[in-house]
């Protein structure tokens, strides 16, 4: 009786084994990254041919998790560009807020 791992090793001179290993590696990476379920299916089809030959087809399908849809409110400018702040709303601070580095040394010491 032929063991299953021998089929993987012998089929197409080991290319199937390498390909499945790569697909499994990619699936594990996606499952780990997105913390969602994934699936790797292997389908083997056998079709009789002449004098003991068997046409062997191996197919696999990967259902890897993907990033969830992301959405955000954006605003259209008069030029039809999208930006993340409302162009009709005035800025609260017209001048940039200064950091502690910009304060006089005497003030920083007393803080």
Description:
With 111 residues, the protein is an alpha+beta fold. The chain has two domains: 4-63, no CATH class; 75-110, no CATH class. 30% of the residues lie in helices and 22% in strands. It has three helices and four strands; from the N terminus they run ααββββα. A two-stranded antiparallel ribbon has the order 1-2. A two-stranded antiparallel sheet has the order 3-4. The longest helix is centred in the first third of the chain and has 20 residues, at 15-34. The radius of gyration is 30 Å and the shape is elongated.
What is the alpha-carbon Rg in Å?
30 Å
Q: What global shape is seen?
A: elongated
Share of helix, binned? 25-40%
Percent range for β-strand residues = 15-25%
The tally of helices reads: 3
Largest sheet: 2 strands, antiparallel
Q: What order do the strands of the largest sheet run in, or round the barrel if closed?
A: 1-2
């Amino acid at each position: 009786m032929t063991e299953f791992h021998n089929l993987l090793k012998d089929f197409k001179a080991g290319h199937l084994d390498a390909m499945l290993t790569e697909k499994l590696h990619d699936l594990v990476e996606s499952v780990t990254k997105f913390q969602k379920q994934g699936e790797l299916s292997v389908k083997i089809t056998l079709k009789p041919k002449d004098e003991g030959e068997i046409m062997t087809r191996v197919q696999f399908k990967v259902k890897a998790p993907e990033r969830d849809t992301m959405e955000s409110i954006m605003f259209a400018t008069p030029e039809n560009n999208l930006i993340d702040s409302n162009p009709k709303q005035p800025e609260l601070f017209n001048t940039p807020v200064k950091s502690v580095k910009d304060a006089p040394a005497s003030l920083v010491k007393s803080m």
